[in-house]
Amino acid sequence: MVIKVYFEDQVYEMDVPDEFVRRAQDFFQRMDQDMDKGWQMSRDWVDKPDSRQRCQIVSNKLASALDNEDRKTAMMMAGYLVKQMPELSIIDIDASGDISLTEFTLNETAAAQQAVPAAQADAGKKIGKIEALAQAGQEISKVSKVGRGYRFSIFNKQTQEWQHSATLPDKQEAEKLRDQAFKKRFDELTQ
Question: What pTM did the predictor assign?
Answer without folding.
Answer: 0.59
